[in-house]
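Support case: user asked for a sample of complex input and structure output to validate their parser. Sending the pair below.
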Amino acid sequence: MTQPILELKNIHSGYGSIKALKGVSIRVMPGEVVAIIGANGAGKSTTLMTICGIIAAEQGEVWYDGRMINKVSPEKLPTLGLCQVPEGRRIFPRLSVEENLILGAFYRNDTEAIAKDIQHAYEMFPILGERCNQEGGTLSGGEQQMLAIARALMTKPKVLLLDEPSLGLAPIIVQQIFDIIERINKEDGTTILLVEQNANLALQAAARGYVMETGEISLEDDADALLNNPKIREAYLGE
Amino acid sequence: MEYFIQQLINGLTLGGMYALIALGYTMVYGVIQLINFAHGEFFAAGGYIGAIVLAYFAGVGYMESHPIICLTASFMIAMAYCAYLAIGVEKIAYKPLRKQSRLSALLSALGMSIFLSNGMMLTQGVYDAIYPSELFQGRFDFGMISVSYLQVTIVTLTAALLVGLNILVFKTKIGMAMRATAQDKTMSALVAISSNRIISLTFAIGAGLAASAGIMYGLYYGSVKYDMGFVPGIKAFAAAVLGGIGNITGAMLGGLIIGMVEIFGAGYISGEYKDVFAFIILIAVLYFKPTGIMGENIDDTRV
């Protein structure tokens, strides 16, 4: 049996006295698309930030690619192939689109390959190519999301964590973004852990899903099973 | 007219020095939102190191034969020394306080300033350290206007440093990383940028530039003193605020304006008040446009 590429074992973490995660365990297998769904404030973003070491885990272990990464400094993780597109996209607003992309490849020294990857990003997202000299902060929400994903791809991730990629975007843009996510998974074999409030969308894209409630995993199943689960349909799919 | 042009050149010389110091304030503020009140001490320390190195070369008789090499060496040694000093100061006095309120770090900076200035007094004495006067003795004369070789050297060197800094910050990958860290540290970490290293680098660059200004000051005025960092430090701070704190171009511009105002104020109004003009500007800027010339809004305008 293959080992999970990313595994959370009984993770507790939070902000000062506020405990946001109370024993979260998640496994992601290589090449999988896994979704975490749940209401606002359930702890989904905290989970991703804890994986990336931005928020320290108070208890429990995070394993990535065969090693425990609790004590690895956050800026080391992208060099190991673990990368996050955070909530709100967090484009560097006063850096140009191209500079944002270049910084995605900050740790890399293969200048020629970087230039090629930037061209590849412009092919995948032609609008970014058109706006390559524009400041990131001037892009629309959808364009920023594309840039955030393209920037993350510049780190050459093995595992990509995506936090609310659909947030605040028009439905047609959301569809585009999810097509791209599928493409990244299928073509590059990148493992994807996706956090979404839009459960329907997330479960359609994912193979498996976790349901999160107030800092705990309340349910774990195949995505199809979750989509057909009457409780989930009622609580998260608006039926 | 000749008097005006003469003053313009003097203002450029002085303003360039203020600009070099102001950059350290503004870059550090851009990256960690701290007014590093110990920054003036790097200027003074640079002046001292320059004096020590030049005195050594003069002592061994190398100065007359190779003035350019001596001067270059003094700049390089002083800038490197102050860069490492600043990295150390940041690690000891500011880094442990990074998660605390901004006021804690500010007080720590004031304490550091007193510590460094007294350290210089104890090790170097309370009297002026004299700069060798035989460097760049000649002058260019254009009718009534006279420009010393020294002024030309200072202005040229300042311009070179400012251009170099602009290239570093706006054209290189490490400069991009500096700007990114100033804008969003969490996101920078997520693209593998170590904010600790960027912060160290920012302090090093700022202190290096201040050190270079310290040597220029010593060459220009003939001597340095342990407490010389205080007044130019505050004037350069005023320059950084005038330009828009956190904004690099603004700091350069602010430095030049403060230098010009000081020289013209002293020349046309009264020499007695030369130190007052910078503070009048500081108060006026804080009162009427606290974001400065290039600043857009306080929270958003960083490096």
